[in-house]
């Protein structure tokens, strides 16, 4: 893996833009400079849709929150929202263009599921008690498909270049994260965290440092939040770098592996555990050549999974209330037992509904993306989105078996991790955290189509 000089120049340019944006916001109390640059880059990236479009998306994903914190005292809530929307607009525009240009007459099962999912989502958007809450919920619940088709829309993508850049940024994120790790809550407030929180939420609730710490190991431990200002999103991103250096890096850079492992462990998140377990399972599964043994392996994993869920359901009542493990599991079970066919409407549950004081609010769904989805778009919507994810996994596996490409294996593991984690974690699906996972799945599918076409031509 190697970073070319052009990528380093992009990195330098990005840091200059960030620095100038912070200075302008401090001096003139406006984010107009950053907004202007983002509009220009949005147009350029929407037209080009190449490897550097992904690199731009990565830079926005990684540095969005820390820039908004540092700029927070000089910009408004509207400007904060605009900057976030400008980044997401790249995803929406590219996904819509690709879908209209390439899929309007070429519907496969994946597109059928996507259309049904969108119809059910719009149906539940109309039923939303608050249009603002409904649109916010729609943005989260459609991340999987929008980011996927954004990835499909990209042309002439070089996976090695993208993953090399991600590893480089993972190291930068980790080093900055260690520096920020030693800041106390008061110093974060001085940096602008309280103003950032007010800008992001519209000052509806008081700022909170809850996610900066965890009690899952029985004691209060600080987590690596880094530039994401969010340990979960940070852990998800570093997880990509972790997989690349351990699976796809042939140079055996032990120092790099040790560094990224330390960064990942400092996040102290359940997503890290799921990622490591997924890696072990898929590496073992990929080595099995006989079909009946693969089926046996899958059945064994399912049985162990069901047994583990049963044991956890028995033990969950005795878990300490200061940990979140029981909350995540209970949310998953609550979603299963309170499912409706078409859902109760977008924005009718979740933390945004809690923050905005929605009436008839049920917080029991909050800790599981599966539960949040089944509450809002029902059984039909959940079947379509999880069917969509399963097809992504299937395509990645087939492509890896054909090409033996280690980068495709990384994407396969990320897709399995996303699938499993979403059952028990609401934060497993986010534009900052796992949006890039879905983008990479879309890129992988483009390679899959090319490989299938090549095989057909050879026949």
Q: What is the CA-based Rg, rounded? A: 22 Å
Count of spatially separate domains: 1
Count of helix runs:
19
Largest sheet: 2 strands, antiparallel
Strand order of the largest sheet: 1-2
The geometry reads as globular
Low-confidence runs: none
**SSE pattern, N- to C-terminal:** HHHHHHHHHHEEHHHHHHHHH
Summarize model confidence as the mean pLDDT: 86
Indicate the percent of residues in helices: over 70%
Calculate the terminal CA-CA distance, rounded to whole Å: 34 Å
Class by helix and strand content? mainly alpha
The portion of residues forming beta strands comes to under 5%
- Say how many strands there are: 2
Keywords: Membrane, Transmembrane, Transmembrane helix
Organism: Agathobacter rectalis
Transmembrane segments: 12-42, 54-71, 83-101, 107-126, 133-151, 163-183, 228-248, 254-283, 295-314, 369-393, 405-423, 429-448
Protein name: Lipid A core-O-antigen ligase and related enzymes
């Amino acid at each position: 893996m190697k970073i070319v000089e052009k990528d380093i120049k992009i990195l330098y340019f990005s840091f200059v833009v960030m620095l100038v944006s912070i200075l302008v916001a401090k001096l003139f109390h406006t984010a107009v400079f950053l907004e202007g640059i983002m509009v220009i880059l949005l147009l350029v990236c929407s037209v080009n849709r190449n490897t550097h479009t992904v690199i731009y998306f990565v830079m926005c994903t990684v540095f969005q929150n820390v820039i908004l914190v540092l700029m927070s005292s000089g910009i408004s809530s509207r400007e904060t929202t605009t900057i976030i929307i400008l980044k997401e607009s790249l995803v929406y525009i590219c996904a819509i263009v690709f879908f209209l240009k390439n899929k309007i007459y070429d519907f496969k099962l994946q597109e059928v599921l996507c259309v049904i999912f969108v119809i059910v989502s719009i149906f539940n958007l109309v039923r939303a008690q608050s249009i603002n809450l409904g649109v916010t919920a729609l943005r989260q619940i459609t991340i999987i498909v929008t980011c996927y088709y954004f990835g499909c829309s990209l042309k002439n993508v070089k996976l090695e270049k993208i993953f090399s850049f991600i590893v480089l940024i993972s190291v930068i994120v980790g080093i900055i994260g260690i520096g920020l790790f030693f800041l106390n809550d008061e110093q974060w407030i001085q940096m602008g965290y309280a103003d950032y929180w007010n800008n992001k939420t519209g000052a509806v609730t008081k700022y909170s440092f809850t996610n900066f710490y965890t009690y899952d190991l029985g004691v209060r431990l600080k987590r690596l939040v880094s530039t994401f200002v969010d340990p979960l999103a940070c852990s998800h991103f570093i997880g990509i770098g972790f997989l690349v250096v351990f699976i796809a890096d042939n140079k055996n850079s032990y120092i790099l592996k040790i560094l990224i492992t330390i960064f990942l462990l400092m996040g102290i998140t359940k997503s890290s555990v799921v990622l490591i377990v997924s890696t072990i399972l898929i590496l073992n599964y990929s080595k099995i050549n006989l079909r009946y043994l693969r089926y046996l392996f899958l059945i064994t994993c399912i049985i162990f999974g069901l047994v583990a869920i049963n044991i956890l359901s028995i033990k969950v009542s005795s878990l300490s209330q200061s940990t979140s493990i029981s909350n995540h599991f209970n949310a998953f079970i609550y979603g299963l037992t309170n499912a409706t066919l078409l859902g109760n409407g977008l924005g009718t549950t979740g933390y945004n509904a809690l923050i905005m004081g929605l009436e008839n609010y049920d917080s029991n769904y909050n800790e599981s993306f599966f539960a949040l989805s089944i509450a809002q778009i029902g059984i039909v919507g959940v079947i379509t989105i999880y069917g969509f994810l399963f097809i992504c996994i299937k395509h990645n596996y087939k492509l890896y078996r054909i090409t033996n490409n280690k980068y495709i294996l990384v994407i396969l593991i990320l897709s399995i991790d996303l699938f499993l984690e979403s059952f028990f974690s609401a934060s497993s699906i986010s534009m900052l955290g796992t949006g890039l996972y879905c983008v990479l799945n879309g890129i992988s599918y483009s390679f899959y189509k090319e490989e299938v076409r090549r095989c057909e031509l050879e026949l």
